[in-house]
Amino acid sequence: MQSSNSHDATGPQYRTHSTETDRHKSAQRGSKSADEIADAYADVADKLARWRQLDQFFAGRYRRRQFTHARGRVLDVACGTGRNFRSLTSASEVVGIDISEEMLVHARNELGRLDLEGTVQQMDAQALDFPDDSFDTVISSFSTCTFPDPIAALHEMDRVCTPDGEILLLEHRRSDAAPLARFQDWRAESHYEKTGCRLTHDPLSTVEQAGLPVEDVSTAFFGLVTTIDVIPR
Q1: Are 191 and 199 contacting, i.e. CB atoms less than 8 angstroms apart?
Q2: Candidate from 37-41, 207-211, 224-228 with smallest mean pLDDT
Q3: Cα separations in angstroms, 38 against 44, 147, 220
Q4: CA–CA separation, 61 and 50 (whole Å)
Q5: Which of 129, 205, 215, 220 could pair with 229 as two cysteines, CB 3.0-4.6 Å apart?
Q6: How far apart are CA 231 and CA 161, in angstroms?
C-alpha cells in the first residue's frame, strides 16, 4: 500500500482522466434520491449478507488496516450489513446508521454475533440525528460513492465528531491501471442506475470540496482502494 502524509490533488492519479469519465460523472450526479438508494439496497441486502466471507477475503484487510485503531464511541456511517464491525476492536461503543432498514437487519445480527456494545439505527447520512461532538471516531466505507450529496454527508460526519477525534474513510475510486479504468468507465452509468454507486468517483476530491483537512491518503489494489484520514474542524 502506498501512503503519504502529503498529497498532490493535481497529480496525475487524482486528475480527471477522460472526457468519457466526466460524462459519466455528470450523468450520475444527483440523479438518485436517498429513498431511491434505500430501495436499491433493500433489494440486495440479503445477497450482500451472504457474501460476508467473500467481502472479508477481498476487503477485510483494508477494513482492518483502516479501522482497527478507531477508538472510543464510534459512529459507522452507512454501515450496511455491518462489515466494519469486526474491525472495531478498540471501540468502547459502536453506533451504526444506514438508510436501508433491510441492511440494518443484518447489521444487528452482526453486532450480536460479535458481542459488541452498540446499536444500529435507520438514518440519512446527510442529516444525522445526533448532537454536535457526539463521537470520538466517525468511520465510513465505500459510501461517498452512493450519497446523493456526499459533501453534505461529510459535513455531518465532521459535525458529530469531537474536535480531537478523527474521521476514517475507506473508499473506491477509478483505477490507476488503464484496463480496469476503461472497464469502470464502460460500466459506470449502468452500474449507477442499478445500484446507485458511482464507480469512477474521486473520494479525495469530494473530501477536499467539503473543505475538510486531509491528514493521510493511501491507495492500494491498482489504485481501486483509497483510505483517507480526515481531521475534524
Answers
A1: yes
A2: 37-41
A3: 10, 10, 29
A4: 19
A5: 215
A6: 10
pLDDT in tens, 57-94: 577 799 999 999 999 999 999 999 999 999 999 999 99
Helix (H) or strand (E) holding 91: strand 91-98
DSSP lists the bridge partners of residue 93 as 73
b or e along 180-205 (b: 16 or more beta carbons within 10 Å of the residue's beta carbon)? ebbebbeebbebbeebbbbbbbbbbe
Q: How far apart are CA 47 and CA 220, in angstroms?
A: 26
State the Cα–Cα distance between residues 226 and 104, nearest whole angstrom: 25
Inter-residue contact 124 to 96 (CB < 8 Å): no
Contacts of 113 (CB under 8 A, 6+ apart): none
Rounded to an integer, the average pLDDT of 2-25 is 37
Helix (H, G, I), strand (E, B) or coil at 183: helix
Distance CA 164, CA 124 (A): 25
Burial 60-78 (b: 16+ CB within 10 A, else e): bebbbbbbeebeebbbbbb
| Angstrom distance (rounded) from CA 150 to CA 154 | 6
Work out the widest C-alpha separation in the chain, in whole angstroms. Answer: 49
CA angle, 230 as apex, 114 and 49 as ends, to 5°? 30
Q: DSSP string of 102-129?
A: HHHHHHHHHHHHHT-SEEEEE--TTS--
